[in-house]
Amino acid sequence: MKLSEYIKGRLPAYLTYAGGWIMALLFMGAFHIQTQAAVIITVIMLLTVTAAELPPLIRRMRFYGKLRSNIQELDQKYLISEMLEDPGFPEGDILCDVIRDADRSMYEHITEYRNENVQFREFIEMWVHEIKLPVAGLLLMCHNDGNTRYTGQVKRIDSLIENVLYYARSGSAEKDYIIKETDLKRVFADSAVKYREELQERSVSVSAEGLSISVMTDGKWLGYIFGQLFSNSMKYFSPDREPEIKVTAEDFPDKTVLHFRDNGTGIPESDLPYIFEKSFTGENGRTHGRSTGMGLYIIKQLCGKLGHCISAESVKGEYTDIIITFGRNDLHDVV
Length: 335
Hints:
Structural class: alpha+beta
Distance between the termini: 56 Å
Largest sheet: 5 strands, mixed
CATH class of the largest domain: Alpha Beta
Number of domains: 2
Order of helices and strands: HHHHEHHEEHEEHHEEH
Number of helices: 10
Strand order of the largest sheet: 2-4-5-7-6
Helix content: 55-70%
């Protein structure tokens, strides 16, 4: 709290004091009281006002100064109620009570929201597991009957259901992963096998180079990321050339960089900074109605949880290159 702010707030009281002092001087002048007596009375009044105003001023400046300093230093501003001290003046006590009541109400609402969120996520996970049973049954029936007409659509439904499960879990992925040494080549091969039929139907050429590298990650979540990249690439292949996906990895002393590159329609330069944002579809999304804008968003979130960096490079009409950087684990290197 600044001195000028305090004086501004107390200005009506100071004007009242000044009015009283002027009236006292006029009264003393009317009764011809000596100048020395008027000066003494004036000094006494000034000392009295100073003695009455100075301690509250000091308490307020100390309290509000510390309050402002604490709120600026806190990353989570709502924790300010935990740092409040006894202000020592009535207005400060009221302010502290109001802040504590507001924070208490906020905590109750947050707890209620979190509980609802957990219940909804549990319901989604249960629903996904239940719905996967009939979908698996349909896939088995199509396989036994030799009917491939509906297999692709059923697999697409299964993939979309899996997306729902992974998205529901992505908010708390840290509770469901195991970071360990993982073979990039094996995880990529498993993902490619999963999408083998669709890749063959679209005559997609898939090549891999330099993947005989181990990185510190969770194999299951990385497999899901590869699956999403396969799915994204197959949505946006160009009809003007043979579709191709090329995956390469470069190993550096402090990191491993993986490139997932396709020769599809590419991404406009104006859309590139926003492709990892939630529900962003951009120009390609409006052209291809199947886009939801969630795939790359989920991948970005998972990479953040796993400690990986992800970025993209693209040229419209030529290629799209998704780049994932795996940091080097020094402890693992020592062992």
